[in-house]
Amino acid sequence: MARSTKGAADFLQSNSTMAALLPALARMGKLQQSVAAALPAMFDACQILHFEAGVLVMSAPNAAMAARLKQQAPRLQDRLQKDGWQVNSIRIKVQVGKITPPPAPKRVLELTDNALSSFAELSSTLASDPRSQGLKDAIDSMLRRRQARASTEQLKEGQAFPEGK
Q1: Distances from the Cα of 100 to the Cα of 60, 103, 158, angstroms
Q2: How far apart are CA 49 and CA 83, in angstroms?
Q3: Distances (CA, A) of 163 to 85, 150, 152, 158, 159
Q4: How far apart are CA 55 and CA 2, in angstroms?
Q5: Which of 12, 124, 125, 162 could disulfide-link 18, Cβ–Cβ 3.0 to 4.6 Å?
Q6: What is the model's pTM?
């Protein structure tokens, strides 16, 4: 990443017309960092389009994100003013073509064999009255799903290493 940034800076400095853009780019980069620091992580897909005459124009990837960003605008404006940016107003534009970052992968927690046997023991010791039946059914269902998943994983492992070859 630093390599391409360095190459871009060298290119801009090599041309006098392009070199005039460097201070504006540096300013926009610092403003984007200030905005990112002031907003919660859910707004990472929102970016600055331009900042001119005290009007900060930001992009949002969809209307829902734009509405949430609009709710955050007064707090963002106060924070940016405290950081030394003269922001008089914030406008938000929806950029439908922008791609939102993919959601973080779900973390799957696996129960240990000891935990599974404890749940099986709990299910077998629960009374058969209506008050306990819901819990008993939920535990049994969880154990069946886990056993089915374990069987599927064993089949996949068996196919990955066929015997006799």
Answers
A1: 9, 9, 39
A2: 19
A3: 69, 20, 18, 8, 9
A4: 31
A5: 12
A6: 0.51
Model confidence pLDDT, tens digit, residues 38-84 = 888 888 888 888 888 889 999 988 898 899 999 989 999 999 999 88
* Tokens coding 9: 């800076």
Candidates 54, 79, 58, 84; CA nearest to 69 is: 58
Our measurement of the distance from residue 8's CA atom to the centroid of its chain's CA atoms, rounded to an integer in Å, reads 28
The CA-CA-CA angle for residues 126, 131, 133, to 5°, reads: 55
Amino acid at 6: K
With 0-12 / 13-18 / 19 or more C-beta atoms within 10 angstroms meaning exposed / middle / buried, residue 108 is: exposed
**Cα angle value 37/32/75 (rounded, 5°):** 50
Distance CA 23, CA 13 (A): 11
Q: Report CA 29 to chain centroid distance, whole Å.
A: 21
